[in-house]
Design goal:
By secondary structure, the protein is α/β, with parallel strands linked by helices. 36% of the residues lie in helices and 15% in strands. The protein folds into two domains: 3-205, Rossmann fold, CATH 3.40.50; 214-364, 3-Layer(aba) Sandwich (Rossmann fold), CATH 3.40.50.300. α12 (275-286) links the parallel β10 (266-269) and β11 (292-295). α6 (128-137) packs parallel to α8 (162-169). It is globular and about 70 Å long. The structure holds adenosine monophosphate. Adenosine monophosphate (AMP) binds next to α3.
C-alpha cells in the first residue's frame, strides 16, 4: 500500500514528500482510512510508529474543505514538548495548505497565544491546563470544533489530567469526531474511551509493549556508583545521541552537570527550567549540539529525536509503562537502539514487572574493568541514597505555567492513578520554587 491509495490533496502530498514519507507505517495504514471516513478511532500505538501523521494527514485533508479561520481541530497532548512537536509536524505536512496551527501551553506568555488565536487558526495543539485557561477567559472558541484528538492519553491519565479532559469535553460540540491515542491501555483509559468514543474503530501497531528494534540490558550497581558507571559506559560504548533518565529534577540537573564536567556536551531537561530553556535543551539535543540529554520522565515524554542510539535509565522508572515510554525514545522509525537500566537491590520488583511486560528475562551485564567494589563514601553522601524528591508545598501543574489570569480555572487535584505510587503522582503535579539556570552549554 502506498500513500497514493489515500488520495490526499496534492498540497498534502507535497508536504509528505518534503517530510520524506514514501510509504505509510503500519499505524498509518490502519488509522488513515477510518479517520478519513469520519469514524472515531482508538489507536494503540507505541511512540515512534508514525502516529502523529496517522491523525494529522487525514485532519489536514478534512480541513481543506470548509470554513477557514475557525478552530476546527484540537489536539490535546500531555507535555509542552510533545505539543510543540505535533504542531511542527502539522506545519511541515500542511505547509502548502495555508491551514494554520497554533500551540497553546503554559510556561510562556498568554497574550501572544491570544493574538494568534484571534488572527484565526484551524488547528490548535494544546496542553490541558493552559487550554482551560483560554476557555475560561473566552479567548478560544471551540464551538466549531469538528475533530478532537487526545494524544498519549495514558500519560495524561498518569499526570492527573483526566479531570481537565472531562472539563474540556463540556466545551466542545457533542457532535464531533474523536481520536484517542495511547501507548498502553490502563483501566482508566479504557473507561475514558468508552465514555467519549462513539462506535470506534480500534487500530494497533505492534504489541503495546516496547519497540522491537531495541535491545535491553540491566546493569546492577550500587546507588553511589551510578555516575562513575555512566561515565565509564559512555567512554566504552559507541554511542550517537544518548538520553539518560533520572527519577527527580534535582538528579537530572546534577547528572547533567557531572557529565558536562567530564567533558561531554550535555544538557538537562526537567520541570524546574523555564519553557524557553526546556526547548533550548531539546532543540540542542535534536540538532546535535548536545550529545547527552539527562531528563525526567515528565520532561521527555513523547519527544521525537530519531537518532537516539541509547536510552540509559540512571534510575529505574516507577512503572512498567514509564519504562515503555522511555525506551520508546530509541529504536524510533525502525532504527535500532540500546536500552541500559541501572538497577539497585531495591529495583528487583520493578525488574520482574518489566520482564513480564517484555515476556523475557533481561540480560544482566557487568562492565569489564569497572571497579564495583568501591564503598559508599558516607551514609548520606549525595547519590548514595535512592532518589527522593525534596518535600515541598504542593502546587498544581498549571501554576508553573506563566501567570494564569484572575478567574482562571481552579487547581484540579490529581486523582489517584491506578498504578503510579503516590510520590510519583505528587512529582507529576508539583514544582519546586525557584528556577535554576540551565547548566547546559556546549562544553569545550
Ligand atoms: P511519531 O510516532 O509520530 O512520533 O513519529 C516518529 C517518527 O517517524 C517521526 O520522526 C516521523 O517524522 C517519522 N515518520 C512518520 N511517518 C513516517 C513515514 N510514513 N515514513 C517515514 N517516516 C515517518
Amino acid at each position: 500500500m502506498s500513500f497514493s491509495n489515500f488520495n490526499f490533496h496534492p498540497y498534502i502530498a507535497t508536504g509528505m514528500t518534503a517530510a520524506g514519507y514514501a510509504t505509510p507505517t503500519p499505524i498509518q495504514k490502519q488509522a488513515i482510512p477510518p479517520v478519513l471516513a469520519g469514524r472515531d478511532v482508538m489507536g494503540l500505538a507505541q511512540t515512534g510508529t508514525g502516529k502523529t501523521a496517522a491523525f494529522a494527514l487525514p485532519i489536514l485533508q478534512r480541513l481543506m474543505q470548509g470554513e477557514r479561520g475557525r478552530v476546527r481541530a484540537l489536539v490535546v497532548a500531555p507535555t509542552r514538548e510533545l505539543a510543540e512537536q505535533i504542531h511542527q509536524s502539522i506545519e511541515k505536512l500542511g505547509h502548502k495548505t495555508r491551514l494554520k496551527s497554533v500551540t497553546v501551553y503554559g510556561g510562556v506568555k498568554l497574550n501572544p497565544q491570544v493574538d494568534k488565536l484571534r488572527r484565526g487558526a484551524e488547528i490548535v495543539v494544546a496542553c490541558p491546563g493552559r487550554l482551560l485557561d483560554h476557555i475560561n477567559q473566552g479567548t478560544i472558541d471551540l464551538s466549531r470544533l469538528e475533530v478532537l484528538v487526545l494524544d498519549e492519553a495514558d500519560q495524561m491519565f498518569d499526570m492527573g489530567f483526566l479531570p481537565d479532559i472531562r472539563r474540556l469535553l463540556r466545551h466542545v460540540p457533542a457532535r464531533r469526531q474523536t481520536l484517542l491515542f495511547s501507548a498502553t491501555m490502563p483501566a482508566g483509559i479504557r473507561t475514558l474511551a468508552q465514555e467519549i468514543l462513539t462506535n470506534p474503530v480500534t487500530v494497533q501497531a505492534g504489541t503495546p509493549g516496547t519497540a522491537v528494534t531495541v535491545s535491553h540490558a540491566l546493569y546492577p550497581v550500587g546507588q553511589h556508583l551510578k555516575t562513575p558507571l555512566l561515565l565509564e559506559l559512555l567512554r566504552h560504548t559507541d554511542t550517537g545521541s544518548v538520553l539518560v533518565f533520572t527519577r527527580t529534577k534535582h538528579r537530572a540537573k546534577r547528572v547533567g552537570e557531572q557529565l558536562e564536567k567530564a567533558g561531554y556536551r550535555a544538557a538537562s531537561l526537567q520541570g524546574n527550567l523555564s519553557q524557553n530553556r526546556r526547548q533550548a535543551a531539546l532543540d540542542g539535543f535534536r540538532d546535535g549540539t548536545f550529545q547527552v540529554l539527562v531528563a525526567t520522565d515528565i520532561a521527555a515524554r513523547g519527544i521525537d529525536v530519531s537518532q537516539v542510539s541509547h536510552v540509559i535509565n540512571y534510575d529505574m522508572p516507577d512503572t512498567a509503562e514509564a519504562y515503555t515510554h522511555r525506551i520508546g525514545r530509541t529504536g524510533r522509525a525502525a532504527r535500532t537502539g540500546d536500552a541500559f537500566t541501572f538497577t539497585t537491590g531495591d529495583d528487583a520488583p520493578m525488574v520482574r514487572t518489566i520482564e513480564c511486560l517484555l515476556g523475557a528475562p533481561l540480560e544482566r551485564r557487568t562492565l569489564p574493568g569497572f571497579d564495583y567494589s568501591v564503598p559508599s563514601p558516607q551514609r548520606d553522601a549525595e547519590f548514595a541514597r535512592p532518589p527522593r524528591e525534596p518535600r515541598q508545598a504542593r502546587k498544581p501543574e498549571a501554576a508553573q505555567q506563566a501567570a494564569p489570569a484572575a478567574g482562571s480555572r481552579t487547581a484540579a487535584v490529581a486523582p489517584p492513578s491506578a498504578k503510579a505510587p503516590k510520590a510519583s503522582r505528587r512529582r507529576a503535579r508539583t514544582t519546586s520554587p525557584g528556577s535554576p539556570s540551565l547548566q547546559a552549554q556546549r562544553s569545550r
